[in-house]
Amino acid sequence: MSSPAALTRVISSHIFSRKPLTLAQLDVLASTGAQGIELWGAVPHLNYLSRAAVREVAGYFGSSPVKLHSLHFPMYRSEDDIVKRNNIVHRDRGERIAAMDEVKRALEVAELAPFRFLILHLDEYEQPWSEEVMDHAMTSVEHLRAFARPLGVTLALENLYDGIADPENLLQVLRTGHFDDVGLCFDSGHAHMVAATRAKAKSDAHAEDGSVIATRDAVMAEYFAMLEMMTPRIVTTHLHDNDSTRDAHLWPGDPSLNGAGIPWPETMRILGAAPHAPAANLEIHHSHSADEAQIAPRAKAAFELLSASLG
After folding, report:
1. Omega into 44 within 30° of 0, i.e. cis?
2. Which residues partner with 239 through β-bridges?
3. Superfamily name and number for 4-197+232-308
4. How many CB atoms neighbour CB 31 within 10 A?
5. Is the pLDDT of residue 300 over 70?
6. Residue 241 gets which letter from DSSP?
7. How many angstroms from the chain centroid is the CA of residue 170?
8. What's this model's pTM, rounded to 2 decimal places?
9. I need a labelling partner for 30 at 20 to 30 A (CA). Which of 14, 158, 163, 280 fits?
10. 241-252 pLDDT per residue, tens
11. Per 3-state DSSP, what percentage of the chain is helix, strand, and coil (rounded to 5)?
């Protein structure tokens, strides 16, 4: 992404994630001017368990100039009518194996519909980062990496806001495991939220109600520190906006933020210099699918904002 013309535009089907995926929805995403699409890996949105459903998706991309860029790993699975989170670093070995098996089922989509990246979470909601979690992450990433490689898929670990998938921890996994062919997915909204949390933790300022406050400059310093830290390993992105207080998944530059959103010119200049030339992938909240006619113009405006930031 050395120039605006080189910006690779991608949009995620996350915006339709509460609905079963249709070819008409893919047409809407293609009408945004995107060169690639990321599919949200969740049944029933994308029924990766059905070869017939996967063949239909594969046929679409096989005849379209828009390519299947990436697949978001399935965050949940169903077992005996119970929905469980796919946690590949769970303390229970059986849960880790079940989660990895489900991720491998999703990866098999690449046999019929090739894609470049699998976006993967290291989730642990029961315990903080520890040597035990690190060991589980190393083992699971190694296992899934070995499965993905023959399919031509690169794993991309996404920064979250749960304290486990912080940039420092993700990079520790990559370095310690010598996972040179595993990358990072930079999520702008998650980084913005973590930046605010870190800035508040370092602040001595308090509001009248006693709550800790942090200056905008302090939040931005934390945000850019994380982005710069991740940049050498970023292979793809999830770009969306928020005010740093909640994971809103707004369109970049949403006017409702009134200047409290993500600084896109500086963000895109850094991403534009990233060695792996990551695509600009819009991951927008499913509530924005309510007005389907607005998806294309809003996405085009977002892509224009991100491209202009590279100038």
Report:
1. yes
2. 282
3. Divalent-metal-dependent TIM barrel enzymes (3.20.20.150)
4. 14
5. yes
6. B
7. 14
8. 0.95
9. 158
10. 999 999 999 999
11. 45, 15, 40
